[in-house]
UniProtKB/TrEMBL annotation:
Pfam families: Trp_DMAT. This is Tryptophan dimethylallyltransferase family protein. Keywords: Transferase. Residues 13-24 have a biased composition (Gly residues). Residues 1-45 are annotated as: Disordered. The keyword Transferase applies. It comes from Nocardiopsis mangrovi.
Amino acid sequence: MTSVQPAQPGGDPLAGGVRGGGDPFVGSGPLSRRHPLRPASDRYPRGTTVLEAAVDKTGRCLSALGRPPAEARALAALITDVWGVWADAPVATPAWRCYAAADGSPFELSASWTGNDVELRVTGEALADPPGPAANQELAWAHLRGIAGRPGVDLGQVLALEDLFRSDEPREHYWMMHGVAVRPGADPLFKVYLDPHVGGSEHAGDVIDEAMARLGMGAAWRRTLDHTGAFGGPGRIGSLALDLTDPERARAKIYLQYPDHDARAIDSQAAIAAGHVPGAFAAALRTITGHSAPPFGKPPVTCFAFRKGRSVPAAATLYVPMIPEFPDDESARDRTAAFLSREGIDPGPYAAFLESLADLPLAETRNQNFIAYHPAPPGTTPRFSCYVAPGLYA
C-alpha cells in the first residue's frame, strides 16, 4: 500500500550515521578496522562503565539547566535500575558501533523546551554481551518486558507489534532503543524506538502500514501518505516510536527522511498535521543550515505524531541535521542560537545544555546531531529540542 521508500541505515533522527559520503555504513553495527571507535577525551579513566559515564553526563546537564541535585540523583537511580547488561560495558573498549548516538555511543541525551518548561531525555540502545543482531534483539525485548509494572507504563500496544519488529534473522545493523523522559512533578515517560527494517528494508513500508492499522491509526497514516504524494512523495522511513503509556493518550511517531526534497516540499508535506504553521519548516531549514535544497549532508527529517481518534497527525516536528552541516559544535551552536533568538526563544539554556555535555571545547567537537523544531501559531509557544551524543568517541 505505501510508497514510502526504506531509509538508508544510520538516518534515524535519534541516530548517528553521517551520510555525507565515504563508507555507506558507519552508522551502526559491528566495529571494523576501517571505522573503529576511539575515546574522544581523557575524562574517563580506563574501567569507567557506560552507566558511570551516563550518570556523569546527566548530572552535568541537569546542573547546567538549573535543576536541584536531587533530580540528578533520582535520574541516576532510575537508569541504574532499568538499564540492562550493556550499562556495565567499559567505555574504553567498545564492541559495537551503536545507532543511538552520532558518535557510536550506546546512549544519547536530549532536552526539549516549551517556554520555561524543559524535559530531559536519555535514550539507550540494548547491547548483548557479546553484541550481535540476534542477541541484541533478544535482550531488547526482554528489557522492554522488564519495565512492566512501573508507574504509568503500559506495554500493551508495543507487545501487540512484536511479531512485526522481530526477525529470525535480523539485519546486521539491527537496533532497538529505549528512552525515558523526566519532567518535574510527573512520572518518567518511557518510550521505545523500533526498527521497521529489521527483516530487510524492502519490507519496512509494509511493517509500518500494518503497525499503524493495529494501533488504530491506520486511516490517519493513509491520509498522510495520500497528502505527501502531491509534494514529491513521503521520503524514506526511519523508525517508529511509541510512548509506553495509556493507549488512549500515547503517541505513535513515524520519522520520514528527506534526502531528495527541498525545504518547500518538506514544509508542504507537514501541512497535513494539526497546528502546522505554513512556511515555518522551510524558514527553519534555510535559517539554520543556510540552504533550502538538497544535497544535504544528512537528510532533514519530519516526525509525524499520531494519536488514537485523530484523522490527521496530531503534530509534525522538523529535525534539522547539524552533522555534517557544520564543521563543529561551536558553529552549529551559533547558528542555532541566532535562530532561537529570532523566534523569541532565549538560547541561553540550550547553549548551557550543549556546553555541559562537552569534554572538549565546542570548536573541537561534533556531537550535536539534530535540532528539532515544532512551530506554534501566533500567541502560543514553539517547542524545540536538542539531540546530543555524549562525546565518548571521536
